[in-house]
Design brief:
mainly beta; seven-stranded mixed sheet
Length: 122
């Protein structure tokens, strides 16, 4: 992928998730976004590629190989999943929503099980 993008756009640099950018415009790649899940054989991980121009993400691809979903978004252009436009939910009742976070790390004196949020999220 890196070689193909460099051939198409040699003026755009490349960086991986943990590295520093090559210049003002660069591709930012994370081959395993959700390494915790990947390492445990869980399906909650994806590969991500973003185009950053002068510090602003202007295009993004996220591929979920397990779910066979390709999410794409561009600045001021909306987002799609497998080519179907996505829209913001119209739900206003927070008790009818689902919120996902990273799996918590258990520490002495802290709960390790997610709890329902009473009265919504503030």
């Amino acid at each position: 992928m890196r070689a193909s993008l460099a051939e198409l756009h040699p003026e755009i640099g490349w960086t991986a998730e943990e590295a520093h950018p090559d210049g003002p415009d660069y591709w930012l790649y994370d081959p395993i976004d959700g390494a915790y899940h990947f390492l445990r054989g869980l399906p909650l991980w994806a590969s991500s590629l973003a185009l950053v121009r002068h510090g602003r993400p202007v295009a993004l691809l996220v591929y979920d190989s397990k779910g066979e979903e390709l999410f794409a978004a561009t600045e001021n252009g909306g987002a799609t999943c497998n080519g179907v436009p996505l829209a913001v939910s119209t739900k206003v009742d927070m008790t009818a929503t689902v919120v996902g976070t990273a799996i918590p790390r258990c520490r002495p004196g802290h709960a390790c099980i997610a709890q329902p949020v009473e009265g919504g999220v503030s």
